[in-house]
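Suppose you are handed a protein chain with no further information: no name, no annotation, nothing but its sequence. What can you learn? This example shows the usual starting point.
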Amino acid sequence: MQKGKINVQTENIFPIIKKFLYSDHDIFLRELISNAVDATQKLKVLSALGKTDVELGDLTIQVVLDEKKKTLSVIDRGIGMSADELDKYINQIALSSAEEFVKTYMGKSDTDKQALIGHFGLGFYSSFMVSKKVEIRTKTYSNEENCGAVKWVCDGSPDYTMTELKAHDRGTEIILHLSDDSTEYAQEFKISEILKKYCKFLPIPIQYGTQKSWETVEGEKDADGKDKKVEKDVARIINNTIPAWTKKPTDLTEEDYKSFYHELYPMNFDDPMFYIHLNVDYPFKLTGILYFPKVKRNFEVQRDKIQLYCNQVFVTDSVEGIVPDFLTLMHGVIDSPDIPLNVSRSYLQSDPNVKKISSHIMKKVADKLEELFKNNREEFEKKWDDLKVFIVYGMVTDEKFYERAEKFCLFKSTDDKYFTFEEYKAKIEPLQTDKDKKIIHLYATDKNEQHSFIKVANDRGYDVLLMDSPIDMHFINQLEQKFEHAAFARVDSDTIDKIIKKEDAAISKLSEEEKTRLKGILERNVPKETYRIEFESQTAEDMPMTIVQPEFMRRMKDMAALGGGGMSFAGNFPDSYNLVVNANNDMLQTILNETDETRQNELVTQFFDLARLSQNLLKGEELTGFIKRSIALIK
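A reasonable first move is to predict its three-dimensional structure. Written in structure tokens, the prediction is:
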């Protein structure tokens, strides 16, 4: 038996490790199993190279929980350690790293601390975060002298004991005696939860508990003459050791990719639209599969769906800043040994390898979208409603992606036709260029609510785009900066003839004296603080009155509602509208010719309410009054 004191100068190192090593204590199990996987992989490599003739046998890693004794064990049949190796790697190297970490850690921020964990490699000592005592039982694969089994015990102080074991299988068993403040880890469901999160795709089988299985009894029949089956407890393997991203694309079918998607996201019942299989060897190592989900408008809840792995060990699903922001809308897996395992996200964001990976993924995404657009535009257009938010978000937030995406980004018109930027410019330039030589892009945000305005524009021969996603307001602002001699205006931001200003002005049927009289009647019935009255000469078929909101003010309020553009002050402005009176509509003469003032006021209010109704501004008591008045007028 060997007793000793670990060479530690820093006082109270174990309490510091216990309290500060990881903010998420669950990670201790990931660390221990990752070590077990490494030990097993090393033995497989040695065997493959002919460096050992040891019989590999079953290499399954076992996780064993004893809820009564409050112990948790991780057992592997990997390379194991001799007494000398145990002394070197546990008593000297690992603990000296821990001591150096503590010295370096003092005074550091949490962010810096997390980066240091990865640097010092403190995987094994994370077990002391949840344990009052840790045992290691190990035997090396080597058959040389002095390579018998050995047991190491430490109770969280610098003191340890090492003793010989008479019998122990090849490999390493780590037994954690859980501390009183960590009894949650003595619960079966808690361990299952951690294993499912961190270990479901590790390359070595991991057994945790058992499950029921029906097995056929050879040569026996049941009462119905069928093969007799009995229920047995069999080992429950919790991981898929060869996930789809580790395979060659040529070995996978479309169904394989869909099945893996649902393995990743069992609660997502929609199939993905398509996928990208990543496989890079130089200048960095990267594998993975990224899926394009059906995003539509609900893009905020789609985040945190990309899972980041390092050699099939789960790292994080919070990848903002690690990949371009718009790629966080995608689903799937990225795996790279060039991504450090035990570091903070802020550390990853500044890592040069991570930046290269981010740039490469953006390029692959753009390549895939361009390929789909060129090879089958009809299918691409069918998927556009699901793709649009993803692509537009990428264009707004990533200049390099914009440069790629402007080739395949589509405008969708309110009559469900699709155009590239160049195609749409060619379509609208002849008719929708105003007297200042600007090409006016009309758009609607709600096809139903703005239907009357869309119809007026269409009747003039103009086209109207549908811009109805949450990100479109930012996109419009960007396009106005990118496009030359172009502007965007919502179709209800003014009367159509004023939006697309022409050289020729229509002649007004109303005289100036009639306009003055009519304005006085309107001011008796229209709230002046909200509505500014103006006259325009439109066609006789156009509405007698129209309510519009100036594009600039409405856009500022929309941007404020989205929380962007530094325009939060605009959200405090009261709503203001223009009441546009059509000087060429014959119904205005009816109002002017009415001698009964009460009747005159009713007519004005009726036309005003009709205009408000078309903008969804008539509600509650006012809407009820409008309906009653309409019935009375019909009678």
